[in-house]
Amino acid sequence: MTPYAATTKVTPEKTQLEIRALVRKHGATSFGAVEDKGQAVVAFRFQDRSIRFYLPLPTNLTQQQTRSRWRNLFLAIKAKLESIASGIETFDEAFLAHIVMPDGDVYSRYAVKALAAAAEGKPLPPLLEGPKE
Question: Along the 133 residues of the chain, how does pLDDT read in single tens digits?
Fold first, then answer.
């Protein structure tokens, strides 16, 4: 099976613009994308929630693999928005993993720690630790 967008010619910059247009069309009130230290971060504000996606971009990726990863992120966000629009999921259900918590981290990072603790029979980590220093 060939990965999605394996041969895309769409640049990461063009895909970022498409993501921005997509989330704005669905009601996002702000948008930002930055690349730093082997990853990109795409963030937007939607329905009083801050949403953040991390896109790993290791330095060993080819330009083609980088273009493909960006297209896959676009597809993931588009699928979530379509799922919401068609009534399959609520906004919170679709974007839960990417909702920014009061401590500045995304919910999925808390959930992964909580699952590991539960599997080891340890107490769950505190849900909200407050802002990071």
Answer: 777 899 999 999 999 999 999 999 999 999 999 998 899 999 999 989 999 999 999 999 999 999 999 999 999 999 999 999 999 999 999 999 999 998 889 999 888 888 888 888 888 777 655 555 4
59-77 as b/e: b if 16+ CB within 10 A: eeeeeeebbbbbbbbbeeb
Give pTM, 2 decimals: 0.87
Residue type present at position 78: K
Whether residue 102 contacts residue 128, with contact meaning beta carbons closer than 8 Å, is answered with yes
Which residue is listed with tokens 């919401």?
Answer: 84
Secondary structure letter of residue 47 according to DSSP: T
Paired tokens of 17: 């613009």
The answer to whether 55 touches 69, Cβ cutoff 8 Å, is: yes
Q: Tell me how far apart the alpha carbons of residues 6 and 22 are, in angstroms, rounded to a whole number.
A: 22
